[in-house]
Fold each of these.
Amino acid sequence: MFTLGVEEEFHLVDPKTRQIAPDAERVLSGAKTNRVEPELQKSQIETGTEVCETLDELRQELKRRRGEAAEAAGAVGRRIAASGTHPLSDWRSTQTFPKEAYVLVERNYQQLAREQVVCGCHVHVGFDDPEEAIEVMNRVRPWLPPILALSSNSPFWMGETTGYRSYRNRIWQRWPIAGIPGTFRNRLEYDTLVKTLLSTGSIDDPARIYWDVRASNKFNTLEVRIADACMDVEESLLVAVLIRALCQTCHKQAGDGAPAGELRAELLQAAVWRAARYGVSNELLDVIGERSLPAWEMLSKLLEFVGPVLESRGEWKEVSGLMDRVRARGTGASRQLKVYERTGHLEAVVDLVVAETAQA
């Protein structure tokens, strides 16, 4: 119960041109571990941690997996870059990875799939009871936009400044089964909807449910998928531990019989858009309070909400310190933009991303 696992996606980069490199097949053929896996595009790879209990275990796992991915990429003259989007590459410079499931995705979704040259950070929280996982899924929804803002790390797309801190989120929202889902009365209702989507040909596999939070079709976990790929390990760690604390807090609320509250879907959609647009540089939407708040005030509310769980796990000091670190350094998006403002070169932005990704 409340175990942690993290999947991180990375771009493959040519260190000379700084462009994405569609070399996943070569990278994977030389990988020394099956924890480095393919992703939708040939210019991407993915890693997955072992199941972890503690913050320190997860930190070491994240470092280990990034190191393995970097070693496999380096063996063929490539680097890995943890960013929601690649700052300067055109999506047309890569192709779909030749795995049957991915070929089918491109066949079904066409241009939509071909433009998905984006990388995320997916956090799995373990649950013993699938009914409890659904109850928690209902309750975490208003807190997902601030997590997106905190993880925002994709301000560029195809060599252009987008005006968004998480443009990956905007690309991702194009999928037909994406965004923050509605609520479910129980696991049966959830499973029935998945079966209906399958039987009507709306999806070809439960894996094609691309909600920001979903009950995993592979593991006994709740999977939160809203975060951009985080530039450094400490940011991935922060996002993962916050998500676990959020799940555990919502689980306790449900056990105590606290009402879940009704949330307008329109407000949730607006909250996600604002988090993607501004990150932590402006105001975020407090969906529960139906008001706008300065971003760091909203993030302080999130930290306060999960604080008792963090205290009980002995994680408060470190997690609050990691939050202070992001506030002082800026999010990944902020750091990318600062380098671009200082140098005027997106190649320098790629160098930053590659360097921070390699600090595992």
Amino acid sequence: MRAWGMTHRGAVREQNQDSFRIVELGSALLCVVCDGMGGALAGDVASDLAVEVFCENVSAAARSRDTAAVLRTAVLAANNAVFEKAYSDPAYYGMGTTLVAAFVTPRQTLVVNVGDSRAYQIDRNGINRITNDHSLVEDLVRRGELTPDQARFHPKKNLITRALGAEPLVDCDIFRPSLRQGDHLLLCSDGLINTLCSQEILYETIHGGPEDDCCQRMIDIALQRGAPDNVTAVLIRI
């Protein structure tokens, strides 16, 4: 297994509120992307803190047989850390962050998410979104009131319904994608998916060039298209 990651503040924002981390835990790999709430105070503090606390908690319990429980506990710990900081200092009031993470071992892969950062499974047969956005437009898509293409360009597409730090407790989704050797797993913030479509992500991953340049190529495309938001991508090859 190998992983590569990159983040950029984009072409418009003055500050990068995205954070990511790649951690090797023996034969396992832990990768996480957090996107600080763009309209809130100190989104960069929220995303940095969530990444740090989440990774610390997973690392401390990485040998547990119940990986899903470890990930849920780590999400709750990260949520608590962001929530307490947000409500203990007026400078950070209202901050929050999304989180999407993957824990990959030779035997299994688990993906956890809160918010609208995403995970994709990519192989030569195509690209498949693993996660479900916790957002207003995703709810409208599920109810059949919007198509996925309409959702991409909806004026309220950035309104999320779940985030770390927003409430004392938070629910997360956990997925167990079936990955084979040679498959790829992409974690990304919405700054990437709002500028590249899934087929472009598929092309760059499989056909665009060397794997270790893939994140750079996708971010370069986002920048060429104006990149109105921070952009982060972490690519894992199984």
